[in-house]
Amino acid sequence: MRVRTRLTLAFTAVMAVVLLAVGLFVYSRVGSDLDAALDNSLRSRADDLAALAGGGLSASDQDRLVASDESLTQLIGPSGRVVYSSAGLGQRPLLRGAELARAKRGPLFVDRDSVAGFDERTRLLARPTDSGVVVVGATREDREEALSSLRTVLLTGGPIALLLAALAGYWLASAALWPVGAMRNEAAEISRLGSGRRLPVPPAGDELSKLGETLNEMLERLEKSAERERGFVASASHELRTPLALLKAELELALREGRTAEELRDAVASAAGESDRLVQLAEDLLVLARADEGRLPVRPERLDTAELLESTARRFETRAAEAGRQLRVLPSDGLALHADRLRAEQALGNLVDNALRHGEGAVELAAEQAEGGVRLHVRDRGPGFDAALNGHAFERFTRGDRARSRGGTGLGLAIVDAIARSHGGRTAAGSCDDGQGADVWIELPRSHGDLIRSG
Fold first, then answer.
1. Distance (Å, rounded) from C-alpha 116 to C-alpha 83?
2. Helix axes 141-189, 207-255, angle to 10 degrees
3. Does residue 156 sit within a domain?
4. How far, in Å, are 235, 247, 405, 441 from residue 240 at the CA level?
5. Pick the residue with more confidence: 127 or 188?
6. How far is 240 from 263, CA to CA, in rounded Å?
7. Taking the model in full, what pTM does it have?
8. Is residue 190 one of the residues assigned to a domain?
9. What would the DSSP string read from start to end of 176-204?
């Protein structure tokens, strides 16, 4: 069942209950008002007749007891004998026994299904007077006719009103859901991501408009994600193609006849180097894939910042010495951080590797306290980042023009950023304070103890 049909049925059911409740209320209220009007009329007649009968009745006064439209009037004397009756009632008292005794004490209303000479339902009012009991009555025929007419109106107009309400409900539901149908049709036409098409958003600014805006934002994110994925796959394919081609070439050279033992060793060594590069690339891609899925394993612990910087510097001492570069670790003032040791060392290692590969001069490792945690800096005295990398340095497979000839896959800084985000931290890159060289830092959460007290 479609939504508009369900809405129409629900609206119709509610309207049916409302109409039924209103009809019953009106019917009951009209019946009550008619009863009250009849009682008031009987009281007025009884009072007038009691006042007239109080002075004694004569033959000339009898016609004054009954108006032309009133045929139920009776005067019962103290002894219970009928003194006067309107035409058709005869001389039989309308009240006897206990009813007559009660009427002598005060006004009394009595309902009868029939009275002598009258087959309709009748309502009587008896009240005491000085000369006995005055009884007046009126048939309920007018009341029944009025209620019958009202029932006819309600039973005829109610279904018509309910039908009109159902049609109005269906029209309103269709109008309200029209933007949904338009968005569904447009979504069916969007056959692939990257088409640039968006769902139509109604200008009302209501919930459907917000839904359309949210879906369009989702499409925008999906297109950007798909574009990044295509670029990622293309870049990964390009990076894998080069070491695979070199590995194949080295193995083919090693298989040629007439190769010396030295040439074979060189070919195998080169092939092993390319294999190491493939393994490292595969591991980097795995880290990024896990980070994208939110499954990068992180086991935070309390770390001494100075110890972390020193251990990272020791890993690169030999490489820095071979390149004629210096590695310096600046004092960290006893700062402590809360992070996974292996991931923190991996991130710092990538930063130092990047500085040694693409920078110049001495490489400095430093730490400072920040508002959001602890920042670990790696600085060098090289030319810094290309202007084209502003805002893109931590994207995957991003390399400046100067860096393309120096090797690397363009994944090092991307992994640093993934490790920072997995800890709830962040990264940034820029120039040193004096404008010479590059300054890259990663911010990780500060330890709960804030500082580690030294000896």
1. 17
2. 20
3. no
4. 8, 11, 16, 29
5. 127
6. 25
7. 0.50
8. no
9. HHHHHHHHHHHHHH--STTS-------TT
Which has the closest alpha carbon to 432: 389, 382, 357? 382
Q: For the purposes of burial, counting CB atoms within 10 Å of the CB of 434, is it exposed (0-12), middle (13-18) or buried (19 or more)?
A: exposed
Based on the fold, state whether residues 442 and 337 are members of the same structural domain. yes
Which CATH number goes with the domain that contains 373? Answer: 3.30.565.10
Q: Which residue has the higher pLDDT, 164 or 47?
A: 164
- C-alpha 377/C-alpha 232 separation (Å) is 28
pLDDT at residue 453 in the model: 36
Give the orientation angle of helix 412-422 with respect to helix 341-358, to 10 degrees.
150
Q: Print the domain residue range for 382.
A: 301-451
**Nearest-angstrom CA–CA distance, 428 and 351:** 11
Same domain? For 288 and 305 the reply is: no
Domains identified in the chain, total number? 3
Give yes or no for residue 427 having a pLDDT over 80. yes
Give the least confident one: 144-153, 288-297, 343-352.
288-297
Strand order in the sheet with 301-304: 301-304, 335-339, 446-451
On whether residue 216 sits in a domain, the answer given is yes
Is 83 within 8 Å of 57 (Cβ atoms)? yes
CATH of the domain at 287: 1.10.287.130
Separation CA 63–CA 44 (nearest Å): 18
Residue with tokens 């180097």: 273
Task: Say if 424 falls within a structural domain.
Answer: yes
Which amino acid, 33? Answer: D
One domain for residues 439 and 404: yes
Q: Are 12 and 166 in contact (CB under 8 A)?
A: yes
CB-CB contact of 413 with 429 (8 Å): yes
Q: What is the tally of helices (H) and strands (E) in the chain?
A: 10, 13
Residue 408 binned pLDDT confidence (cut-offs 50, 70, 90) = low
